[in-house]
Each structure stands twice: as structure tokens, then as C-alpha cells.
Amino acid sequence: MAKEHIHLIGIGGTGMTSLAGLLHESGCRVTGSDGALYPPTSTILADLGVEVYEGFDAAHLDPAPDLVVVGNAISRGNEEAEAVLDGRLRYTSMPRLIHDRFLVGRHSIVIAGTHGKTTTASMLAAVLTRAGREPGYLIGGLPHDLKRPFAVGNGPAFVIEGDEYDTAFFDKGPKFMHYRPDTALLGTVEFDHADIYRDLEQIQLAFRRLINLVPRRGRIVRYEECAVTREITEGAMATVEGYGMHAGLWRAEDLSERPDGSSFRIVRDGQPFAEIDLKLSGPHNVRNALSVVVAAHEQGLSAEEIAAGLNGFSGVRRRLELRGVRSGVSVFDDFAHHPTAIEETLKAVRNRTANGRVWAILEPRSWSLRRNVFQRRLAEVFDAADEIVVAPVFRPEQIPAENRLDVPALVETLIARGAAARHIVDVESIVERVVDEAADGDVVVVMSNGGFDGLHDRLLEALAARAADPSRVSS
């Protein structure tokens, strides 16, 4: 019997690549199309043996697949999407297919909130996996401690990020509404995705609808120190368990931060539960770990199993990931997408940097950062940085001028606040400035949710060249 053939339009996104992996593990023949792909997604798909077409062409759908999955980055006018509609081919969205194929009959654990979804989902999947629970999971990033960012799994639990972004051009509801959570982990909730949500009130409505899906037998794990999160979960029919540094049933106490991580004690209802020695820095990662503790405890893991899983967790690529150290300068990569994430990342770096300066290099690339909705807020999030470089808005022509972030004005505001800030318009000039001025012990944090024209590697190469030329080494 021939394998079911499923074609993914827009296969190169992290979520779609993971879906391709789940379908492949399930015995399907998977093909896909997208623009030019790069590692790591291209590597994952190649390792799976998935046939990927570069570019979009109706011929990729001849003969017709059994099912077509249309990614949420695909719009009307896409040649393959139009061929699907014209040919009346069977099609669906990524979230709907995930529900129908992988969540039915499983305990769906949905990680939601504005920040920390990928790290938290990775952490929980890694903890459950280490404890031998064989969870299913789909993660929109690349965890260091899991072989791949997806697994069908044989255990009862399935861990998935609950993104509030819209589902597809034919389904403008949030992705997470398809995931029907038995357990929902809800961290901080802030205004984001300015391209599809008008204001925080609209965001809140979307999250309220998610919470309303959690059954009475289910559980809501909420961050107690976010007023918006508490408000959203008021009136929930499910059991609510709160966590926080200073509030909630589950708390982290005696926090000690080091350059290589964080140590803290977890207490439950005032009673000691576990001692944690996390390899990740920053209070935000402590909060992520706390929510994982609650969810893992619900799944029946002992305190010892949970502590072992958390202590062994090494993080996720592009979440404050050290890319290398050259000429005494450390270069980190961070998937910056929102002002709060930038602020928390830089605070974590400041706390782990003993003597050197912290360089923050930002490319406004997410839909929200490219808009001026955060013009004022962005000026307030760089206080932990010593040197600030802001690159131009990515593809500015996609944002009307009246709605676009004004980078020169942002830099002027930063300077007026006493910051050492610069607007540098091309990557070559950024590299030149850092190589000329960065000193031994400095830390450079490159912040973008895209490739930033290979800035990380170019910095490391140029710093290595500087190290080979003693006359150029800064001090």
C-alpha cells in the first residue's frame, strides 16, 4: 500500500519543519516547498530524506498529494496555494493537522504566553524524556538536549508551544485554539504581534478563549506576578496552580546567579521540594523552570526526577546562545522579538559579566519591533548595556512610514538618557566598529529573530583575524 503523501507549502519555518518530522516518523511520504533554506532546518529535512522544492510551482502538486498543509506565512497569490484552491485539493493548516494526528487521545500540554515558550517547552520535553516518559513534542526552536525538535512519543503527554499568532490565510484564529489543552502553562502576557492585534485587549481576549478550553479536570499553571495573566485566568473552570518568585503555591527562593547559571530552592506551599542548579541565567529562566516543575509534577515525576532533568538542561539555540569567543570577546545570539525579552536578556548578561562591557546589537526584525508601537518602550530596555548599536528596520518598505519604527529617533532618545548608542546602517560597518573597540572580557549580544546577514559569524571571523594581529587588539 502506498504511503500517504502530504505536501507542506512553506516547509522551512521551524514549526513546519518539526511537523514534517512528525509526519515522517508516522510513516507518511512528506514533500515541501519554500524559498531558499539554510541550516539548521535544511539539515533536519535533508537528514529525514524529505524532498524539498526551492520556490513555489503548481507542478509540485502534480500528481496531487493526498493532503496539502498550508503554512501561516503563505498568502493568497502564492502559486501553490492558488493551485490547491483551483484544483479543489484537500488542504489544512499546521495547527489543525497537529491536533487531528498527534493530540487526540494524548494529554495536551500547551505552553503559552508572550515570552519563554520555546525554552519552557524544550525544558519540559527534556525533563519528561530524561525521566523515561517518552513524551511527544513539537518545538519551534532547536533544544540542545533533544535529538530533534519533534517526537511522536509513546507516552501520554504531548508538549507543544501555544502561539497566539494566526493559523493560516483561511483561518485567522490563533494557532493555540487548535491544541485543546489539558494542561495550559501561562507565563507573562503583554501586547505583541502588532501586525494582527490592535491592542492588549485583543491579546487578552485570545488568551481568555484559550483558558476557556481547559476542561474542569485540567490544570492551568499561571505566573502569579503578572496582573494580566491573573486577570485572564479569573473564572477558569480548571484547577489553577500559581508560581512565582514572591507569590504562588510554587516559589523559587534563595536565588543565586553565576556567570554559568542559576541556583535556587523550590518550595511548594512553604515546604522544600527540590534544589536546582540551572545552567541558564536570568530570573526569566527561573520562572520558566518553575512552570516546568508544576507541569512535570502533575505528570507524576518525583522531585528527584524533576531536579535531574532541569539540572541537565542546556538551553535552546538562539536563546542567549554563545556562538564563540575570539580575541577575548564573547559573541552571543539571541532571538529578540519584543522589548521585554530584550530587557531580560541584557539583565541576565549583565549579571554574568564580571568586568567587561556589554554590547547590545539589535536588528528590528519582528513585526512588532519594526513598528513604532514600541518606540518609547524600546528606549527603556537597554539600561544593562554599555554599548548599543541599532541596525535599520528589516525590509522597511513592508511597513508604512507612519507606522514604522524611527531608528534615528530611538538612538537620539537613548543618547539623551545617557546611553552610548549608535545607529549603524550596514553589517560591515557594525563588524568594523566592534572589532575596533571591543576589549578582552567584553560580551556582544546580537539580537534578531532572523539571520542578520550572518553578523555572528562575521564578527567571530573578524575578531579571530584581530587576535592574529597584535597591533589591532583592544585593551
Please, could you describe this protein's structure?
This protein has three domains: 5-92, NAD(P)-binding Rossmann-like Domain (Rossmann fold, 3-Layer(aba) Sandwich); 105-311, UDP-N-acetylmuramoyl-L-alanine:D-glutamate ligase (3-Layer(aba) Sandwich); 321-466, Mur ligase, C-terminal domain (Protein-Tyrosine Phosphatase, Chain A). The relative contact order is 0.09. The longest helix is centred in the middle third of the chain and has 16 residues, at 283-298. The chain is an alpha/beta fold and 475 residues long. It has helices spanning 14-25, 41-48, 79-86, 94-103, 117-130, 200-211, 227-233, 283-298, 303-311, 339-352, 375-378, 407-416, 427-437, 455-467; strands at 5-9, 29-34, 51-54, 67-70, 91-93, 107-112, 136-138, 150-151, 157-161, 166-168, 171-174, 183-186, 219-223, 239-244, 250-258, 261-268, 271-278, 321-326, 329-334, 358-362, 387-390, 421-423, 443-447. A ten-stranded mixed β-sheet has the order 8-7-9-6-12-13-14-15-16-17, sandwiched between helices. It has a six-stranded mixed β-sheet with strand order 18-19-23-20-21-22, with helices on both faces. Strands 3-2-1-4-5 form a five-stranded parallel β-sheet, with helices on both faces. The chain is built from 14 helices and 23 strands. 31% of the residues lie in helices and 24% in strands. The mean pLDDT is 92.
